C-alpha cells in the first residue's frame, strides 16, 4: 500500500473521529443544560447506573471489538428519566470505563461522543415517526411496545452505521465477511435485549403492586449476572479457540511444509488466536537479508530495514510496547499512526535469529502475558519449520553436488580414459609403417571414440532438465506411460487417489526415476498386456504403485543380476528410495505378474 494513500486515509479517519467526537460532546453539554432536576426515584436511577457500569465493565467480544447487554438499562433510564439524563448517564459511564481501561485518547473521547449522537438521533427519529403515525402514550401498552421496537431498531442501525463508516474509511481493509460476522453477533444481542424489555412491559402491565427500586433490582440482576457470566465464558471460549487454532495451525504447517506457499497458513489463521491490526513475518535468507513473508494491516513497505540493527541479534524474548510513546521511532515510522501496541517475537534456533514475528493493535495495552505465551509458542514452531526448510535446501544442494561428483568420476574414469587411449593409438599409428597394423590401431580408436560418443550423449541426457521440473511428477509419469504404450504395445492406465500434495523437487525426481524404471522394466521384460499405475495421497504418505499382468520373475535371480548392472536395476531403485527415506517393496511371481510399491513419507 502506498504511503501517500495511507497518509490520506489516516487524515480522513482522524478528521471523521474528531468531528463525531465534537458533535457528540456538544450534545452531551446540551443535555447537562437541559437537566433541571431528577423526576422519579433517585435510588432507582443510581441502581440502574451501577448496573450499566457493570455491563460496560464486562463486555462480550464481538469480531475484533466488543458489545454489551447495556441497552435494556439505557432504554429504561430514558423511559423513566428522559433522554437527556440518559445521554449524560451513558456518556459518563462510557468515559469512566475508557479511562479505567486506559484506552487511547482518541477512543476515550470518541466512544462517549458517538453514543451521545446515536441516542439523541434515535430519540428524535422515534418521536418523529410516532407523531406522524398518530400514536400517543394514552393508547396503552401497544404504544410502548411500538416505541421499544422503533427505538431499538433505530438505535442499533445508527450505532452500527457510524462504526461501520469509521471502519470503512480507515486504511485497514474492512472485508464483507468481517462485517457479516459482526452483524450476526450484534443481532443476537439486539434480540435478547428486545425480549428482555418485552418481558418488563408485560410484567409492568399487570397489577403486581408498587414498582420500586427492589423491583428493578430483582428484574435486572439476572441481566447483569448474564452479562458478567457471558463475558467470562466468552473469554474462556476465546482461549479455547486460540488453543484449537494453534493446534490446527501446527498440523497445517507440518502438512504444507514442503510447499513454497506454507506461510499462507500462518496468514489465514493468525487472527484466530491473537488480535492484530498489523501483522509482519520476516524470514532471514541465506545471504543474511530479510525476506517479507507476510505483511498485512497497518505496516508500510520497507519495514524490514528496521531489523538490520545489531541489537536484534541479542534479543531472545518477546518485546512488548503497550503505548504509542514506547514504540521506537525508527519502527514507528513504518507503522500506521493508529497502531498503538506492538509485540515483536524473534524466531531463534541454536542461538541464531532466523525470523521475526510482529503484531500490532490500535488499542493501548491490548497484549498481555497470555498473548506473549501464545505468540512465543507459534514463534518456536515457525523457527523449527524455517530451520527444517534450510536443512531441506542443504540436502538438495548436497544431492546436486554428489550428482556432479558422480558425473565427474564417470567422465574421468570412462570418457577421459577412452579418449586418452584413442589418442595414444592414433599417435602410435603415425609411427607404424605396415598398413595392416596401422589400420587396426585406427579401427580400435574409432570404436573407442564411438563408445565415448555414446557415453557423452548419455551424460548430456542426464544433465537435461527433468520432466518433473517441467510438468510435475504426475504428468511426467503419465507421459512416460504414453511412451511405454507406444513402444511396447501395452495398455497403460493411470489413477490418482486423494488430495494432491506439493512435493519438493528432489522427491518428485526420485519418485519419477523409480516409477519410470519400473514401467520400463515391465515393457522390456514382462510381456504384459496391461500396466496399472496408481498414485494414492494419504495422510502423511504417498503410495505409488506399478502393477503388470506379465510373466513375473524370481526376485532372488533379479538381485543377483542387479549386482552386475546396478545402474539401471533394482539396486539403483533402492538407492533412489533410500535418498528420500522411502521404502520400496517388490512382489513378483512367475505367471502372476509384478507389483512394485513405493511408500514415500510426506511428513518428513
How would you describe this protein?
With 604 residues, the protein is an alpha+beta fold. It has four domains: 241 residues, no CATH class; 133 residues, GAF domain (Beta-Lactamase, 2-Layer Sandwich), CATH 3.30.450.40; 70 residues; 131 residues, Heat Shock Protein 90 (2-Layer Sandwich). It is built from 17 helices and twelve strands. The strands form three sheets. The protein has a five-stranded antiparallel beta sheet. Helix 2 runs antiparallel to helix 3 and helix 14 packs parallel to helix 15.
Q: What distinguishing features does this structure have?
A:
five-stranded mixed sheet, 17 helices, 604 residues, five-stranded antiparallel sheet, alpha+beta, 12 strands, Beta-Lactamase
What is the strand and helix layout of this fold?
Elements: H1 3-34, H2 42-57, E1 60-62, E2 65-67, H3 71-81, H4 83-100, H5 105-133, H6 141-169, H7 176-204, H8 213-256, H9 263-273, E3 278-284, E4 290-297, E5 319-321, H10 329-332, E6 341-349, E7 352-361, H11 369-431, H12 435-463, H13 467-471, H14 473-488, E8 491-497, H15 505-526, E9 530-538, E10 541-548, H16 555-564, H17 570-579, E11 583-588, E12 594-601
Parallel strand pairs: 8-9
Antiparallel strand pairs: 1-2, 3-4, 3-7, 5-6, 6-7, 9-10, 10-12, 11-12
Helix pairs in contact: 1-4, 1-5, 2-3, 2-4, 2-8, 3-4, 4-5, 5-6, 6-7, 8-9, 8-11, 11-12, 14-15, 15-17
Amino acid at each position: 500500500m502506498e504511503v501517500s494513500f495511507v497518509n490520506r486515509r489516516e487524515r480522513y479517519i482522524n478528521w471523521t473521529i474528531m468531528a463525531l467526537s465534537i458533535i457528540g460532546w456538544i450534545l452531551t453539554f446540551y443535555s447537562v443544560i437541559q437537566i433541571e432536576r431528577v423526576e422519579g426515584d433517585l435510588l432507582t436511577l443510581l441502581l440502574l447506573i451501577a448496573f450499566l457500569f457493570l455491563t460496560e465493565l464486562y463486555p462480550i467480544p464481538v469480531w475484533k471489538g466488543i458489545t454489551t447487554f447495556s441497552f435494556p438499562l439505557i432504554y429504561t433510564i430514558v423511559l423513566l428519566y428522559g433522554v437527556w439524563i440518559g445521554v449524560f448517564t451513558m456518556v459518563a459511564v462510557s468515559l469512566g470505563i475508557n479511562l479505567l481501561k486506559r484506552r487511547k485518547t482518541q477512543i476515550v473521547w470518541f466512544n462517549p461522543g458517538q453514543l451521545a449522537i446515536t441516542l439523541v438521533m434515535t430519540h428524535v427519529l422515534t418521536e418523529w415517526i410516532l407523531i406522524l403515525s398518530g400514536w400517543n402514550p394514552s393508547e396503552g401498552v401497544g404504544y410502548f411496545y411500538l416505541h421499544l421496537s422503533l427505538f431499538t431498531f433505530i438505535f442499533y442501525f445508527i450505532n452500527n452505521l457510524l462504526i461501520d463508516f469509521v471502519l470503512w474509511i480507515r486504511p485497514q481493509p474492512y472485508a464483507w465477511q468481517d462485517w457479516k460476522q459482526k452483524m450476526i453477533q450484534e443481532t443476537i444481542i439486539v434480540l435478547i435485549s428486545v425480549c428482555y424489555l418485552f418481558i418488563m412491559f408485560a410484567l409492568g402491565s399487570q397489577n403486581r403492586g408498587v414498582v420500586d427500586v427492589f423491583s428493578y433490582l430483582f428484574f435486572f440482576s439476572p441481566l447483569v449476572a448474564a452479562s458478567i457470566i457471558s463475558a467470562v465464558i466468552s473469554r474462556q471460549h476465546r482461549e479455547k479457540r486460540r488453543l484449537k487454532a494453534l493446534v490446527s495451525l501446527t498440523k497445517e504447517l507440518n502438512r504444507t511444509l514442503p510447499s513454497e506457499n506454507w506461510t499462507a497458513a500462518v496468514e489465514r489463521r493468525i487472527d484466530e488466536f491473537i488480535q492484530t491490526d498489523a501483522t509482519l513475518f520476516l524470514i532471514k535468507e541465506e545471504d543474511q537479508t530479510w525476506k517479507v513473508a507476510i505483511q498485512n494491516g497497518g505496516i508500510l513497505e520497507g519495514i524490514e530495514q528496521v531489523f538490520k540493527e545489531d541489537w536484534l541479534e541479542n534479543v531472545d524474548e518477546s518485546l512488548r510496547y503497550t503505548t504509542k510513546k514506547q514504540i521506537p521511532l525508527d519502527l514507528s515510522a513504518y507503522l500506521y499512526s493508529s497502531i498503538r501496541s506492538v509485540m515483536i517475537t524473534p524466531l531463534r534456533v541454536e542461538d541464531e535469529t532466523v525470523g521475526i514475528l510482529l503484531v500490532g493493535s490500535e488499542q493501548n495495552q491490548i497484549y498481555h502475558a497470555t498473548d506473549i505465551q501464545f505468540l512465543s509458542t507459534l514463534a518456536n514452531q515457525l523457527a523449527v519449520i524455517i530451520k527444517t526448510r534450510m536443512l531441506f535446501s542443504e540436502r538438495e544442494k548436497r544431492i546436486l553436488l554428489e550428482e556432479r561428483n558422480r558425473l565427474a568420476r564417470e567422465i574421468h574414469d570412462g570418457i577421459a580414459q577412452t579418449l586418452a587411449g584413442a589418442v595414444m593409438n592414433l599417435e602410435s599409428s603415425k609411427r607404424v609403417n605396415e598398413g595392416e597394423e596401422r589400420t587396426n590401431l585406427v579401427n580400435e580408436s574409432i570404436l573407442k571414440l564411438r563408445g565415448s560418443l555414446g557415453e557423452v550423449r548419455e551424460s548430456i541426457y542426464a544433465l537435461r532438465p527433468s520432466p518433473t521440473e517441467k510438468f510435475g511428477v504426475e504428468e511426467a509419469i503419465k507421459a512416460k506411460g504414453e511412451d511405454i504404450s507406444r513402444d511396447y504395445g501395452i495398455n497403460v492406465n493411470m489413477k490418482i487417489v486423494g488430495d494432491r500434495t506439493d512435493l519438493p523437487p528432489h522427491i518428485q525426481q526420485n519418485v519419477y526415476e523409480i516409477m519410470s524404471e519400473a514401467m520400463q522394466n515391465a515393457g522390456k521384460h514382462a510381456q504384459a498386456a496391461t500396466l496399472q499405475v496408481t498414485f494414492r495421497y494419504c495422510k502423511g504418505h504417498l503410495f505409488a504403485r506399478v502393477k503388470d499382468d506379465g510373466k513375473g520373475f524370481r526376485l532372488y535371480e533379479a538381485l543377483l543380476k542387479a549386482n552386475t548392472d546396478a545402474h539401471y536395476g533394482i539396486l539403483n531403485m533402492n538407492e533412489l528410495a533410500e535418498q528420500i527415506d522411502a521404502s520400496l517393496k517388490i512382489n513378483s511371481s512367475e505367471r502372476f505378474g509384478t507389483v512394485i510399491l513405493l511408500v514415500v513419507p510426506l511428513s518428513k
